Write a sequence for this structure.
């Protein structure tokens, strides 16, 4: 009797677990398909990342392979510290120091004009702007990033150049004009990244400042702003890279004079403008010297990217 009951109980158990065993087969199959899709997409992402790295490596190899021999032939000190750029003379001279100084002046002016305005705009959008106004201001700021450089150049020629000429004197094609236009062009970068950095600060920081008796303005400026300094510094570094690499607008409004400026109303030629203005007819050592100019610019951009990586890594840490 006990054996029969045990045998019946075992049959019931087998019948109870049999449907679950049969149903588990499709689940294992779907899990394997899902795993295959995940591994396949991981491979696709890895391939895309490798292609990006390969592109950077190829550009670096080409620039240094073509530019460094020219720099060595001209002389590193003569190339970097020379003040004369006369590539078509019977005795050519290739000194890019005036272009380096011009790039520094124009970039510094753009940072001095654009960063304070962009940072204060980001603070306003993040903590002071009403919702209705926010929906109008943010798209307007983002629209600045989509305007082509040539349009900024035309605006500078038609509006800013006459204004600078009437107020500061000179021809109007000057360091001041280029700084104003580049300051406008870096605004979307500064505003967007700074606003994101401010919004990423935990709300507890702001609430804790209010609980200690600070006003809304003091809580934002003394607590949230220092807490977001890593993101703000990253925005400034990217803005500097944007200003250094700008070409078309600077060519149209900077004056393109390959000499050391004496005043802010003098025209200058930047590294990027030097390359684009003469690349069309350059040949021989002249062409290689322009590639050497690109190497100097490329090294400068790499340094900026390295600084950005250091800043972002400290932020994550």
């Amino acid at each position: 009797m006990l054996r029969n009951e045990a045998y019946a109980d075992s049959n019931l158990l087998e019948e109870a677990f049999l449907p679950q065993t049969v149903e588990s087969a499709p689940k294992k199959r779907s899990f394997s398909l899902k795993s295959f899709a995940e591994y396949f997409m991981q491979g696709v992402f890895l391939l895309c990342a490798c292609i990006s790295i390969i592109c950077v490596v190829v550009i670096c190899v080409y620039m240094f392979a073509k530019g460094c021999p020219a720099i060595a032939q001209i002389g590193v000190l003569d190339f970097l510290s020379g003040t004369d750029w006369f590539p078509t003379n019977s005795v050519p001279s290739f000194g890019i120091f005036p272009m380096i100084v011009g790039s520094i002046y124009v970039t510094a002016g753009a940072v001095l004009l654009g960063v304070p305005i962009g940072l204060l705009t980001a603070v306003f959008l993040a903590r002071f702007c009403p919702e209705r106004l926010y929906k109008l201001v943010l798209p307007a700021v983002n629209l600045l990033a989509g305007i082509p450089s040539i349009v900024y150049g035309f605006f500078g020629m038609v509006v800013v150049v006459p204004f600078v000429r009437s107020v500061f004197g000179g021809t109007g094609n000057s360091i001041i004009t280029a700084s104003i236009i580049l300051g406008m062009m870096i605004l979307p970068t500064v505003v967007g990244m700074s606003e994101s950095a401010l919004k990423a600060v935990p709300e507890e920081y702001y609430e804790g400042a209010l609980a200690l008796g600070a006003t809304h303005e003091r809580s934002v400026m003394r607590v949230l702003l220092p807490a977001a300094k890593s993101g703000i510094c990253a925005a400034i570094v990217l803005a500097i890279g944007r200003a250094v690499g700008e070409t078309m607008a600077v060519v149209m409004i900077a004056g393109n004079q390959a000499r050391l400026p004496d005043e802010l109303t003098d025209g200058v030629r930047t590294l990027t403008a030097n390359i684009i203005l003469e690349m069309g007819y350059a040949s021989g050592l002249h062409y290689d010297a322009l590639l050497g100019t690109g190497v100097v610019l490329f090294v400068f951009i790499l340094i900026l990217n390295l600084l950005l990586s250091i800043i972002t890594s400290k932020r994550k840490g």
